[in-house]
Amino acid sequence: MHRVEIEKLTKFYGERQVLDQIDLSVSDHEVVCLIGASGSGKSTLLRCINGLTEFDEGSIRIDGVDIYDESFGRTGLYKKVGIVFQAYNLFPTMSVLQNITLAPIKVHGRARADAEAAAMKLLDLFGLGQYAKSYPEQLSGGQQQRVAIVRSLATEPEVLLLDEVTAALDPELIGEVLKIIHDLKQTGMTMVIVTHEMAFARDVADRVCFLDGGRIIEQGAPRQLFSNPENPRTQKFLQRIIESGRLAALS
Amino acid sequence: MTRRPGKGRRQIALKDRLTPVLISLASVVVVFGAIAWFVGSAPQWPRIQLQFFSIEAMVEAAPGVARGFLVSLQIWLVSLVCIGIWALILAIFRAMTGPWFAPLRVFAIVYVDLFRGLPALLLVLLFGFGIPALNLPGLPREGLFWGGIALILSYSAYATEVYRSGIEAVHEGQSMAAKSLGLTQWQTLRYAILPQALRNVVPAMLNLVVALQKDVALLSVLGVRDAVREAQIYTARTFNYSSLVVAAVLFLLATIPLARLTDHLQRKDRQRRLQGAL
Fold this sequence. Notes:
Chain A is an alpha/beta fold. Chain A has nine helices and ten strands. Chain A has helices spanning 42-49, 76-80, 96-107, 112-125, 141-153, 171-186, 198-204, 222-227, 232-243; strands spanning 2-13, 16-27, 31-35, 57-62, 65-66, 81-84, 159-163, 190-194, 207-212, 215-220. In chain A, the strands form two sheets. Chain A has a six-stranded mixed sheet with strand order 6-7-8-3-9-10, sandwiched between helices. A four-stranded antiparallel sheet of chain A has the order 2-1-4-5, covered by helices on one side. In chain A, β1 and β2 (16-27) form a beta hairpin. In chain A, α3 crosses α4 (112-125). The longest helix of chain A is centred in the C-terminal third of the chain and has 16 residues, at 171-186. Chain B contains ten helices and no strands. Chain B starts with 6 loop residues before the first helix and ends with a helix. Chain B has a single domain (64-277), classed as MetI-like (MetI-like fold), CATH 1.10.3720.10. The interface between A and B is medium-sized, with 25 and 20 residues.
């Protein structure tokens, strides 16, 4: 069964159409990367999946259930689908541990000791254990983003959405964040990733979707899409990426 | 090539640091010295000194004025606590979106428009004389109580706006993150937004604290024996205004350190934001 099923998704911002009849399904354990120029609708699509952004037409189902179905209750969808943002969005007045345990304790009613133990286990797993008592502003961008990933994992989501999570980072810090995502793929996490890191998309994705003007123009296995793009617009986009030196030319 | 932090370098640095300080000091002494000499040599000065700066009168008036000043401080502190809480409640009303909270939102907006638009003195007179005159059973009748209420109502309107600006200054990504974690709107405010907003508004709030400290004097029109009232009483008896100068000095002693503290916090806040932007 598909974890995520998106059907004929359409959204307008005022007069401007940002999503145009998008169909996309994501299987269990699959990693799908969305690529495309700024304004192509990638981030909007991602935010529709966990209900952060409302859409005008179409439907989204998680495990076969519509995301606006009452059976999700108020918090069910947020528990199933986690999201990590470009700007980390950690809460600056809380320590790393408080950031991570906030939702498990306040939203999902876990006991504090229980939630903290689980959080420490996750932090240790990602090599962040020594920062549990630190505050976000004391950490580097890469560390903050790794903490943000741990925070979204703390509610044990079944699908993880990553919205340009390395776009705000210095080049030397990108690697540590990408490594975590690689590790998550190994554990079988289902992920939808919006990224500008083409080399990373090529490595981590099972499938890459190229968006342009609110439509999925072309999709396929990374090897195929990056080496032999069929659509002229995909070709043009990838050509620009290669020319700017962000992706080694593929033979 | 090796770079040694030699002794000479540091001496030059020290001299460089001292020169501007000395220039500032000298210019301050010259300017204010000139003003003092000019004022002191004016033919009217002895009369002014007798009316406003008579040491004898000051000593005589001091105990009464000081007692009044303590009353002022008490009113100030109690009002501060009430304003801080009441304005926060109003700001939260204002920040709650969603159709069910519309009445609270409208209430907060109308409240702020109303009380920010009226002179504090008018409210003090209205409440301090008007309500006791109604003789309502079960309600206190002292001007002090109702005057204090008027101040609290008036200043809460300003404080609400300060809180609101602090809440709105918190980046939108914060509430998005909170929502994506499943927090309710109230939980988002309580755990994510308000702690940051409160930190943001401390300097602006301290400005209100200083302003309120002075406006407590408005209650003197109700006959509350605060510092200004006590000073007036002395003046009425002796036709000497030195008692008001004593009250003025007391007010300055309280407000100037607060103003410096505000400046300091504002500077620190600016530095923190600049660092955050890097």
